[in-house]
Amino acid sequence: MKILASVLYLVGTFGSALSEATTDAVKAAPEVDTATKSGEGIKFKHFTAHDETHTCSADEHATPFNSQIRGVNLGGWMVLEPWITPSLFYQFLGKDEEHTGMDQFSFCEALGPEEGNKQLRRHWETWVTEEIIKELKDSGAVNSLRLPVGDWMYKPYGPYIGCTDGALDYVDKVLDWAYEYGLNVLFDIHAMRGSQNGFDNSGDAQGFKWTSKITEQVSTDVTFEHWPIRSAGWVGTFDRVTATYTDIDHDNIQHSLDVIEIMVEKYKDHPAVLGLQPVNEPWEWTPIDVLKKFYWDGYLIVKKQAPYWRYVMHDSFRFHTDVWGGFMDGCPDRVLDTHIYTAWMDPTSRENFYDKACATKSKITRMEEAFGPVIVGEWSLATDNCAMWLNGFNDNLAGFPKLPCKYTKCTDPYMGTDQPGTPVNPGKPAQGPFGTGVSTPVFGECPVDRDWHKIGADHDHDKILSPDAPHGHDASDEVMRNLAKKKINAFSGFGHGWYFWNFRTDLHEPRWSYMLALEKGWIPKGNLKADEITHACHKEDFGLYSCIVRRDRFDRDIIDGVKYALQLDDNESELKCANGATFDSSSIMNMTGDDLYLAADCAFNNFWKKHRVEGATCDLGGTAVLIEVNKTYTDDDYEDDYVEKEKIAEELKTVELVTLLLGGVLLGGIVGFIIAMRFNKGFNATVSRTNLGKSMSKSQILRRSFGGFHPSDYGSRQYSSGDSGDNGEYTEIIRT
């Protein structure tokens, strides 16, 4: 494991150093009908495509994908998501079934085309501005923008007709601003007709029904159900019982291919366009053969007219080499996109979040070898699920949030006070309609992410505490800085880059806002090549952590965790530990107390060391915790950037040394002066007659410190006959 970690670490270090901070220049080469069919395949400008195998050959591409993407998503702009811009959705609190919007489809349906378009234009005007694009560029790292769009913008249907008029004019502005400031743009078709995943981010949260009538005997609240019956109809009719599609909707798929063709035709000449992503997050039950065929057909459409565009395909929540390895092998400009979030993880220690971030580099490296270029198209710094409406308008997933959330004043509307429903009324409790989960404003306050607490050595270093850290005990800055550096290290040095989700948020959510994270110093400004990022995963890569059992958990839960760990390791009869100890695996099931703890430490650490590069965490059902080897934890240990600690240990700058020397000299002089004043009467008397002595005599404290002197305490000196000699003495008349 240490050898693998060392190799990955070195690869990341040199890979990051050799990577370019900016993406390749986009070459606009609009060549219509450059593809021709022959018996040897479909010939394009730089390569030949083979329909039967979904592969390519004879690639003579002029611009290989050699550079790193450092980007942000412009989420919540063209495809509405209530959690990103709640100011647009406060107006639906307290409304009935016919007048509630909870995604873009129902937003337009509830408001109608005229009012909906009026509000959307105000939103488009203020959510993304030229000043914001410039600020992103000036951050020093951002070189690309991922722009989520809806398919209705290019081929309108249903309630979108009229409601989204004018959207393309604003897209054109962003393309021009991006080009002006040296950024490129990846188009991401984020929302598809019929919904590709049932999320609100697909434009249409499918799998939905109003349940108000069912509950009216016990409550008059308006209620609905979504998560237990979520569905996705883009590729066909989904059977929830078998989790399969009973038929394929070829009309919807053709509609999507038509949208791709319209977009390529419209933007092929614009020099800011990096490429296109044909669908965002098709859910994991999408038939993989249908999805791959769609990806292939879309790729041919793009390459026919835009030969230099990148073509980015989401992994459908199946980031596995056996799914994507070899797909479209030899085809230029194809990229696999995976989304890596920690917001939905079980509550755990900061070390576990750090390790999870660093371990992703191994998975990315393996996919790069099996498939080709990989980007992390979405990630954030969130470590909990508390952001209001993250799982839907006035709704939540079952069991979420997993911990109590922090509440803060709901922000004023970003688009101005003319927006209906804003600001949130501080005099009202939670208002419907209510889903099956809870997330909503209460008396003018909105739920946001929890604080991380500073931890002392007097208690468990990852104990779950209150959502608000007391004054002076908030460690969020340290934890987020470390987590950001480790994620950037993992996503940059081993793949082809990343896009942070999101560029901004309506509520104060810096873990989801790149701009706020920059402002707080969590994400460094500059080109992100500094040593503090290059070496951010040093401890994790070199195995300086151990996975051990939590001593405060029930024995039965610990045994369940051990069973799980041993099961994944083929239930080996003998458990061998790093310290040389061995345990009979079957006997562990009857252990208790300290004996069980020692055996579980061994089982958990073996499991974690073996499987961490595959994505396993040190959690084991909440019975395990990750700790640094031979470490006693205090608050200071959590500013744990490896490079910064090395610098502190190795670099005492000249100015610091000079300051120490001068301080020592000054302190020594003061101490010597005090001693002389107290014990050398001649020196005391001489000083007393100076201006300094007269000033000092006015202070009672100084008089006591220097022996109680006062200039008037000394009369005229009375000399003896021997005053002229070497042994002359004098007497002093002391005033009584």
Written overview of the protein:
- This protein is α/β, with parallel strands linked by helices and 736 residues long.
- The chain folds into three domains: 2-58 and 71-87 and 101-534, Glycosidases (TIM Barrel), CATH 3.20.20.80; 545-628, no CATH class; 654-731, no CATH class.
- An eight-stranded parallel β-sheet has the order 15-14-13-12-7-6-5-18. A four-stranded antiparallel β-sheet has the order 1-2-3-4, with no helix packed on it.
- Helix 6 (250-267) packs parallel to helix 7 (288-305).
- The termini are far apart.
- Residues 1-33, 632-655 and 704-736 have low confidence and may be disordered.
Topology diagram in text:
Elements: H1 2-18, E1 36-38, E2 41-43, E3 48-50, E4 55-57, E5 69-73, H2 104-127, H3 130-138, E6 144-150, H4 167-180, E7 184-191, E8 209-210, H5 212-215, E9 224-225, E10 236-239, E11 244-248, H6 250-267, E12 273-277, H7 288-305, E13 310-314, H8 321-324, E14 334-340, H9 350-370, E15 374-379, E16 406-409, E17 445-448, H10 476-493, E18 497-500, H11 514-519, H12 531-534, H13 538-541, E19 545-549, H14 555-568, E20 574-576, E21 582-584, H15 585-588, H16 593-611, E22 624-628, H17 642-650, H18 654-679, H19 681-688, H20 691-697, H21 700-705, E23 718-719, E24 730-731
Parallel strand pairs: 5-6, 5-18, 6-7, 7-12, 12-13, 13-14, 14-15
Antiparallel strand pairs: 1-2, 2-3, 3-4, 8-9, 10-11, 16-17, 19-22, 20-21, 23-24
Helix pairs in contact: 1-10, 6-7, 9-10, 14-16, 18-19
